[in-house]
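Milestone 3.1: sequence recovery, worked example.
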C-alpha cells in the first residue's frame, strides 16, 4: 500500500479557497479541520460574550472580530484561526492586510486569544502555545471543557480543564483550573468565572 502525503497549500491558495470558511485553518501548508460542534461554538460564544462585556465596561478600545486569521510573519504557509481573539484598535493601522481581509500579522495587535479544545487538541496545547508565544501574545486561554487533552497537558484522571497562559520572558507560564475553581485573569481582573459557567447544559 502506498502512502500519499496530503496536498500542501500556500497561504494564498488557502485564502482563496477557505478564508470565509470558519471550519478550517492552515498549519505548515496542511489544511486542518477544526471540527467545531454545537457545544464547541456554545463555549466560544460564551467566552466572547463575557470578554466583550468587560471590554465595554472598562471602555477599552479593543474589538472581538466575528472572524479573523493570524498569519505569523515567519511562517509562509500558516493561517491560524483562534476561537476568540481580542484586537487593539489602535494597532490596526499597522496591519498590512487588515483593510482587505480580516488577517492579523503582528502579535502586538493581539491582546488575547482563546482556543476551545476539539479532538485536534494537539494543536491547541502544543503548536499554538509555541506560535502564540513567538508572536508575543500576552494571554492565551485553553478551554478544554470535555477533558480531551493528553495526560501530559491536563493530568490524570482526565477532566475538564481551563488553562490560563501568561507570557513571561518569551514563554507561557500556565495556571490550570478545574470544575468549581474560580478563574481569574490579570487582563480582566473583575471577570471571575468558573469552568462550569461555560459548559453547555
Amino acid at each position: 500500500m502506498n502512502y500519499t502525503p496530503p496536498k500542501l497549500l500556500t497561504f494564498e491558495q488557502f485564502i482563496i479557497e477557505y478564508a470565509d470558511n470558519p471550519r478550517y485553518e492552515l498549519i505548515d501548508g496542511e489544511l486542518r479541520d477544526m471540527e467545531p460542534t454545537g457545544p464547541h461554538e456554545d463555549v466560544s460564544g460564551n467566552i466572547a460574550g463575557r470578554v466583550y462585556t468587560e471590554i465595554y465596561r472598562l471602555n477599552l478600545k479593543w474589538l472581538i472580530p466575528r472572524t479573523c486569521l493570524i498569519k505569523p510573519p515567519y511562517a509562509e504557509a500558516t493561517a491560524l484561526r483562534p476561537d476568540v481573539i481580542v484586537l487593539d484598535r489602535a494597532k490596526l493601522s499597522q496591519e498590512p492586510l487588515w483593510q482587505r481581509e480580516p488577517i492579523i500579522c503582528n502579535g502586538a495587535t493581539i491582546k488575547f486569544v482563546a482556543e476551545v479544545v476539539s479532538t485536534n487538541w494537539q494543536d491547541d496545547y502544543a503548536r499554538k502555545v509555541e506560535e502564540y508565544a513567538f508572536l508575543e501574545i500576552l494571554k492565551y486561554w485553553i478551554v478544554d471543557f470535555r477533558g480531551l487533552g493528553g495526560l501530559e497537558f491536563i493530568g490524570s484522571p482526565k477532566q475538564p480543564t481551563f488553562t490560563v497562559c501568561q507570557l513571561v520572558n518569551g514563554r507561557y507560564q500556565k495556571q490550570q483550573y478545574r470544575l468549581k475553581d474560580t478563574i481569574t485573569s490579570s487582563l480582566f481582573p473583575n471577570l471571575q468565572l468558573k469552568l462550569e459557567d461555560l459548559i453547555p447544559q
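The chain is about 25% helix and 25% strand. The two ends are 46 Å apart (CA to CA).
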